[in-house]
TrEMBL record:
InterPro entries, A to Z: ABC_transptr_periplasmic_BD (IPR002491), Homeodomain-like_sf (IPR009057), HTH_AraC (IPR018060)
Domain HTH araC/xylS-type: 164-262
Taxonomy, superkingdom: Bacteria
Residue stretches in coiled coil: 366-400
Keyword Coiled coil included in the entry's annotation: yes
Protein name: AraC family transcriptional regulator
Keywords on record: Coiled coil, DNA-binding, Transcription, Transcription regulation
Signal sequence extent: none
Amino acid sequence: MLDIHPDMLAQCIDIMDLMNVLCEHPRLQLEHTSLLLVTDGQATLSMNGREEHMVYGHVIVVEKGSVIQLTDTYHMDFSGYFISFRMYDIQTNTPCMYSVNTQAGYAVQKIPETVLSDTRIALHKAAAADELSVTMKQFILYNLLKELKEERRPEEFTLEERLARTLVHMQQKYNQSINREELAAIAGYSPAYYSRQFMQLYGKTPMEYLIRYRIFRAQEMLLTTGDLSKNVAKKTGFDDAQYFNRQFKRFVGKAPKQFMHSIADYRICFLSAAHAEIAIGLGVIPHGVTVISSLTPKYQQDMFKHYGVSLIEMPQYVFQPDRIAQIQPDLIISEHLTEETKQQLRAVAPVITNLPPDLNSLIHYLGHLLNRQKQASQLIQELEERVDTLKDKIDSHIKGEPTVLYLRVEESGYRYVGESSCDTAILLHKELGLPIPETFRTNERSFNICSLQQLAEANPAYLFVEKRIMDYYSADLSLVNLQGSEQWGVLDAVTNNRVFYVDTGLWINNCSVFGKRKIMQQIEQAMLGS
């Protein structure tokens, strides 16, 4: 992956806020080799024309000259650091190139929590001192660079790793002709020995694995493209449409057309509790749903248990595909996935991803996918009527145009939530028409850094405060510092007792069919006292 000679020295040029850099430069061509580190949330970027989903703990090393763009500009709920550096040859004392040995020009690595924690602590200390020293910059850079792994030579692979390489080949070339001899050569074994070892490890022959994988991809295409089954057959490696239909029915239990019209009857696993909530609203009971205990509201947990939905508890930003495989889903639905996770899940079941970001579009999409279009329209109409009712109440009870701010408290400081950055912000500022302070009407699609001085200048009349919930750190001290600051005490919202504390799990993660109703109840209670 990486090419670093011991006679080379890395010099850190700068460390900047990743969100600010990407917002200021929608299309950024790198002047220097850089590291992109995500310390909270998740984001989808275009890296040299290839889409890459980044989550908490990911670091991406990107070569000089590469082009980076934000692709998901609707939910920009992430934070991190942009670290640029240059390389020197210490023998000649001249600049030299840092090479990422991948065709894409970048490499992605998940770093240990201990390294991420050390990096955050170092940056927090520097922020407190209002200065990032050269020594600290070098410490942070080398602390990350040492975690980036070099690729191993094929002869160093274990038997399991050699067989896994053939899985990758099948997954990448499934639409092409593949035979056992070709796969055995990739593994470095004879065809007979390869087949025996594959069968022992995976419980099926290589060709059975390949056919099943092709059927999974065919299911995805049928559900998302609307293409004819004979065309889907060709695109997934089947030259004979009749053979494709036989294999499809053998694996799925129904012919392609019947499958498309009865998808709600299959075992669907949602990787988002908010999406599973929509399915229930549409009258479709999920087979399973992944949940994060600290971010799943009680009403939602009770609802899933009431309907007999299998709850798959996972740590925040740590995905465990084996847990999904254990419930044997027929279909997996998720908003965004890293490429690595997506490939792991595509070996388990068909995977539908890259769903629409806003709630109404998502309800429409899932209604169409699950053949519940009428129910989807009814859900949207009901939510719109509830919004209109609340807006009328607010307009009749609150005179003028008092400003409303949604403030997030994090371990490292504060962020104001842009007026179009998430479904709850859209509810507050767009649907209910509650204006955000004038000074914060920029970068409306992102969660933006907010200093105490900026907060004082904005001086909102109403303040909704979210203490960020994370499994890996606490925002308690930041909240104490906020409430103890001189700026806090003079805010209109504070002096008039108009500060309301809200929950990350509901307001950020679950502004969905039922969650949105809960949020509206809380807004009404906060602003109207009813």
